[in-house]
Amino acid sequence: MSKIIATAAIRGAHAMVERAEEDLRKAIEKHGKDHPVAYPSTAYYLPIMLLFLGQKVEKLGDLEESMQEARKLLGEIPSDEIWLPYLGETLDSGVATLIAEETIESLKYVNGSDPASGIWLGFTSDNILRLQGIKLVDGRMPGFVAIAGATESNEDAVALIRGFQERNILVFMAGHTGGRAIAEQLAEEDIEMNWDTFLVPYGKEITGAVHALNFAARSAMTFGGIEPGDMEAARQILLYNKERVHAFVMALGSDGVGDDQLITDEKYATAAGAINFGFPVIADVPIPQILPTGICTYEHVISGIKLDEIISRAIELRGLTIKLEKIPIPVPYGAGFEGERVRKENMYVQFGGKYTDAFELLRMKELDEVEDGKIEVVGPEVDDMEEGKAYPLGIVVEVAGRQFELDFESVLERRIHEFISCANGIFHMGQRAIIWVRISKDARAKGFKIKDFGEILVAKIHEEFNKIVDRVQVTVYTDVDEVAKLVEEARAVYSERDDKIAGMTDEDVEDYYSCTLCQSYAPNHVCIVTPQRLGLCGAYTWLDCKASYQIDPHGPNEPVQKGTVIDAEKGSWETVNKYIEVKSNGNLTRFNAYSMMEDPMTSCGCFECIAAIVPEANGILIVDRDFTGMTPVGMTFSTLAGQIGGGIKTPGFIGIGKLYISSAKFISAEGGHARIAWMPKHLKEEVEERLKVRLEADGMLDLFDRIATEEDAEDPDALVEYLTKVNHPVLEMEPMF
Ligand code: SF4
Ligand code: ZN
Question: Is the domain of 479 the same as that of 609?
């Protein structure tokens, strides 16, 4: 440990602890010790205290205890002459710093100085954590970087973060140098910053960096299933982060006006906190390096790295495996651009939406009908289009392959959205004949052409589906008459496919499919995917799993024989049970596909919806991720999710995919759809079309209007009252348990 860093970090920790104590003293003076303190929408209290102290902070008074512990961790400030060979004291100061920063940040919510304002986002809710953190543990995002400071020019800032976005690395930002923060530089350059673009500005003060670490701590608790509470748990959470969450801290020493500034004591102290998680620090200014490895898998601190090398050095340092996409188009490409929008002011041209006909269709062909790599544009190119106008668009992809099956068409077609969205400056929404596409002025200026849609699709389909696709060709239509004619043909194909899938039942097939993708963070969880019950994340239907098995027989999906039927109504089969026992590492021996009360499927954490029993109503509610309000069981989605995730079986509560709601097999063991008492309004609207078809087939179409929403009831009493008023059939059903 370099003595200079140790000194600076310990000095910084002292300063941070003093400030937190002062903030706390003022808050208690104003509100009293019993005043509640909490971050919004989390079941993990103040996660840093929970992690390091096993403490569940709920009141300002509790924070006094936290700060006393922080004090104990502070070492004496060494004089610069003293050589400190061990990390220990610095690391402890780092922990004290994080506790102090968690105190300071949480007090902001008490004081009403909302940290989420302007470009800054403040604390990350559990909901977003589940959605995004999963990508870090399952490898879709190779890691995250927490950037503190600013670059010399705005141009440097943009180049740096584009580099991270192209590599799918999540970027957290907090702190400034001499008043300049990189997030502000990006804002000046009109860069969209939010979770969808992988750019998350936490706060201008360095204390905001604690949100990156409380995010990391909660990731381990949520996805690693580690119960916090004692020293051993803390050790495991930190280890989990070191091994699974590939993160690093980037300290930028420039203040954005050209004069290099020194890294402040507080930044050193915060970095020392991050080193506890195994996150190394990389800096662009010459600060003392700490090269020997120990806590981190690699060096703890490397410094003086030039900005244009900093990403590759960071990647080396953290041992990240990065796949840089090589797509021959003139704009950057990567998952970080997937969620970016193109606003009207930045739009060059658009297609579809409510303006014109537009569709995309992928079809299987014979090998000799497809010329691999051929891309053709029928109709005007971008150069012939007028700025601000809307044009028709038809994207027709033809694939051929010896292993390809007709059923895979829709599986591949559904990926077109993701493939196209990942191009910087291109917005894509929807699928089939309801797509809406925009090309930004920037993309146009860089030379993006209609033909590039074809380039993207040819490259990505080859890359991701090389086991089943041998040849791909793409024709992009922008000609009005052609699109008008072809969209009708496409519609006929879609409805044919729907009829086929909708008509498929669990009895029709010999094999179901398993999905063990989520075992990377919920080690005992297995999804059994059947034609009538898709994976609980909503992303894997039986057909998807089948295609995925064909593409990679050693991947996360494999066929599972049903064997003898044990109970058709509950959905249990002999061979499936045996399979589950092996794959859940002996934790489960029985499973009922269509029951939520008796041996239901386990839940990993990425369920689209939760179905929960409402005992007072003798029925159930279904709530989805987007609903942040209170449900009639007195829990929000995130609280419910906290109770049922992690690969355990919780009778009365199941995670489900949205499509399962309209399945004929929907909790048939408990009496099916008649049990549905409540759903958020927007979810009800979303599933309306399919659910009504289902209910009509069962002769109970009138049930739909009897299902309550948050507008009718927010607690069990009001719900029962409503159900009685509308004469909901659930009140007549036999008791649920
Ligand atoms: Fe697979 Fe189930 Fe996880 Fe979805 S929730 S990825 S189906 S294991
Ligand atoms: Zn999952």
Answer: no
- 372-376 average pLDDT score: 94
- Which residues, other chains included, contact 586 with Cβ-Cβ below 8 Å and sequence gap of 6+? none
How long, in residues, is the chain? 737
> Is residue 202, in this structure, part of any structural domain at all?
yes
Phi-psi category of 484—alpha, beta or left, where left has phi over 0 and alpha has psi -120 to 50? alpha
Report CA(525)–ligand 1 centroid distance (Å): 9
Phi and psi dihedrals of 661, rounded to 5? Answer: -60, -35
Q: Is residue 183 part of a domain?
A: yes
Cβ atoms within 10 A of the Cβ of 634, count?
12
To the nearest 10°, report the CA torsion of 596, 597, 601, 603: 80
Q: Rounded to whole angstroms, how far apart are CA atoms 603 and 643?
A: 10
CA of 318 to the centre of ligand 2 (A): 26
Strand partners, 201: 173
Query: Alpha-carbon Rg of the chain, whole angstroms?
Result: 27
Under 8 Å between Cβ of 279 and 248: yes
Distance from the Cα of residue 16 to its chain's centroid: 32
Among the ranges 86-90, 323-327, 464-468, which has the highest mean pLDDT value?
464-468
What would the two tokens of residue 636 be?
């929000």
Which residues are registered as beta bridge partners of 378?
Answer: 477
Ligand 1 atom nearest the C-alpha of 557 is 1
Q: How far is CA 595 from CA 533, 617, 734, in A?
A: 12, 18, 15
Q: Are residues 628 and 723 in the same domain?
A: yes
Mean pLDDT over 488-514 rounds to: 88
Give the mean pLDDT of 454-480.
93
d(CA 350, CA 410): 25
Q: State the average pLDDT over residues 28-55.
A: 94
Name the region of 489 (left: φ>0; alpha: ψ -120 to 50; beta: rest).
Answer: alpha
**What's the pLDDT band for 289 if we cut at 50, 70, 90?**
low
- The 10 Å Cβ neighbour count of residue 504 is 17
What distance in Å separates the CA atoms of residue 378 and residue 394, rounded to the nearest whole number? Answer: 9
CA distance 429 to 201: 25
Distance (Å, whole) CA 640 – CA 627: 12
- Look at the chain and report how many structural domains it folds into: 3
CATH assignment at residue 349: 3.30.1650.10
Ligand sitting nearest the alpha carbon of 558: 1
User: How far, in Å, from the CA of 233 to the mean position of ligand 1?
Assistant: 27
- Catalogue the E-assigned strands of 448-550: 471-477, 511-515, 527-529
Residue 566 and residue 578: Cα distance in Å, rounded?
A: 12
What are the Cα distances from residue 318, in Å, to 150, 521, 660? 22, 20, 41
Q: Give the separation between CA 222 and CA 647, rounded to whole angstroms.
A: 11
Is 183 in contact with 206 (CB distance < 8 Å)? no
Ligand at shortest distance from the CA of 545:
1
Q: What is the DSSP string of 375-387?
A: EEEES--GGGSPT
> Same domain, yes or no, for 196 and 63?
yes
Claim to verify: residue 374 and residue 341 sit in the same structural domain: yes
Per-residue confidence (pLDDT) for residue 1, from 0 to 100: 44
Average confidence (pLDDT) over 53-76: 93
Tell me, using a 6 A CB cutoff, whether residue 534 lines ligand 1: no
Mutate to test the pocket of ligand 1, among 515, 549, 608, 656 (most ligand atoms within 8 A of CB): 515
The answer to whether the beta carbons of residues 148 and 249 sit under 8 Å apart is yes
Give residue 247's identity as a one-letter amino acid code. A
Pocket of ligand 1 contains residue 137 by CB under 6 Å:
no
Alpha-carbon distances, residue 490 vs 18, 32, 264, 663, 669 (angstroms): 67, 66, 61, 26, 39
* Ligand 1 atom closest to 538 (CA): 4
- CA separation for the pair 280, 292 (Å, rounded): 12
Domain that holds residue 583: 506-732
Single-letter amino acid code for the residue at 344? K
Query: How many whole angstroms separate alpha carbon 523 and alpha carbon 512?
Result: 21
pLDDT digits (tens, 9 = 90+) for 569-600: 999 999 999 999 999 888 888 999 999 999 99
